[in-house]
Amino acid sequence: MDMETNTNFDSPLGARGSRGSLIYGLLDCNNFYASCERVFNPALNGVPVVVLSNNDGCVIARSAEAKALGIPMGEPAFRLKDLIESNQVTVFSSNYTLYGDMSHRVMTTIAEFVSDMEVYSIDEAFLLLDGYENIDLKVFGEKMVGTVHRNTGIPVSLGIAPTKTLAKVANKFAKKYKDYKGVCIIDTDEKREKALKLTEIGDVWGIGRRYAKTLHYHSVNTAWDFTQRTKGWVRQTMGVVGERTWLELRGTACLEMETPKSKKSICTSRSFGEKLTELSQISEAVANFAAGCAEKLRTQNSYGCVLTVFIHTNPFATNQPQYYNQTTMQLSVPTNDTTELISYALRGLTAIFATGYKYKKAGVIVSEIVPARPLQGDLFDTRNREKFNKLMCVMDSMNASYGKQKVKVASQGFDRKWKLKNEKLSPCYSTKLKDALEVGAKD
DNA sequence: TCTGGGGTCCTAGGACCC
DNA sequence: TCTGGGGTCCTAGGACCC
């Protein structure tokens, strides 16, 4: 359906109707990374801002003004050079320390309003609004949205509906139409129908590029078209995952709130700032990736049993010889020890490294993660685990006090040829002072 | 010249076993 | 020539998410 056919363009679902069984809320931050950069630099309000991925590769966040210029999500930065210059777009390298801290502030504020929440990503949380039947959800939602904005400086939007997938749909409307004041509620079948008819099938949560193409081929263009197909057809075409989306869009909740689980796999990987050809250079990078995985494991108090190393050349450089390889090792004893994971990772790298290629990226993945080490280890394990455990504790606490990477293992090196580019990094406004205070306190 | 990083879940097919 | 059937486990690959 065309937007123009709507009489009320600013809030196409019309006035609020009588309430059905509302349960789920989805609150997410508007243009999160760009908004974070703005919080500490108000001069950026009203002007186009974009944030680039690691290595200053491609666009991963855009302010409304940048979107209006037609800058697409995921576009490589080098292709946007002219557009950026001619429109004076402010460009930032991604600053995950800043975004992580701002995210925490937002989530903490939401938690003051809703006890049952699921932090779904760095900038989104699902809320369970069961038991809120007797309050005006529109008023409640607007208060929450306003408070988050006031307390953190980050603008947010809230969608409320009977299922998670519909809450996602509602959220898009809350973002798109000013009259909703940041909160859109789908609480009747009429609104659901209207919303789904205005929603492109590819914009539905759970429908990616691939399925969108298939569905368009079958003349399914809107979320509403999709819901009008039979369950059997959807099951056949898209499996159980598609069937769930179909049910959710029809108002039957099949995705519940999830409790945070410890991760099943942990990956640390990067593209290199410059192409690497020498095993020694890549070893340094891989040692750092392994160290990164070890730290993440220790943070969540767990141990890995399997380690994978991979390396590859630049797949976009089609005129150059390509190489991709990976190897996976079972570890003799579950571990989160930096030195041990590094030694496995380097052994793996040596096994898969081939000379004569220009390498672009490498990574380390730890999987089969367990919460604790089994009491009965490997009988032939000769490592003094007690000692290394203490060493790791000391390393973590020193790095916590004096800053990341101050203490590390020799093979992590100082050369850092593999280091990524981030030429337009903003200062860590939100954590700089805190870090200084923490160092001071421990001094 | 220059194209991110970190996850999850599901399915199909092969190996293997009884 | 004829050549079971069912279960489990593992893995690779494909799809999705932010």
Structure description:
- The chain has 443 residues and is α+β, with helices and mostly antiparallel strands.
- Helices cover 39% and strands 19% of the residues.
- It has 14 helices and twelve strands.
- The protein has a five-stranded mixed sheet.
- Helix 4 (96-111) packs antiparallel against helix 5.
- It is globular and about 65 Å long.
- Mean pLDDT is 89; it is low at 1-9 and 434-443.
- The chain binds a DNA duplex (18 and 18 nucleotides) through helix 8, helix 10, strand 9 and strand 12.
Main sheet strand line-up = 5-6-1-7-8
Low-pLDDT parts are: 1-9, 434-443
Q: Report the total helices.
A: 14
| Helical amount | 25-40%
Termini distance? Answer: 64 Å
Extended strand count:
12
Q: Can you lay out the helices and strands and say which pair or pack?
A:
Blueprint: E1 24-29, H1 32-39, E2 49-52, E3 59-62, H2 64-68, H3 81-86, E4 90-93, H4 96-111, E5 117-121, E6 124-128, H5 137-152, E7 156-161, H6 164-176, E8 183-185, H7 189-197, H8 209-217, H9 223-227, H10 231-249, E9 265-276, H11 279-299, E10 303-313, E11 324-335, H12 338-352, E12 359-370, H13 385-402, H14 429-442
Parallel strand pairs: 2-4, 7-8
Antiparallel strand pairs: 1-6, 1-7, 2-3, 5-6, 9-12, 10-11, 10-12
The protein binds a DNA duplex (18 and 18 nucleotides) through α8, α10, β9 and β12.
Give structural attributes.
443 residues; 19% strand; 4-stranded antiparallel sheet; DNA-binding; disordered C terminus; alpha+beta
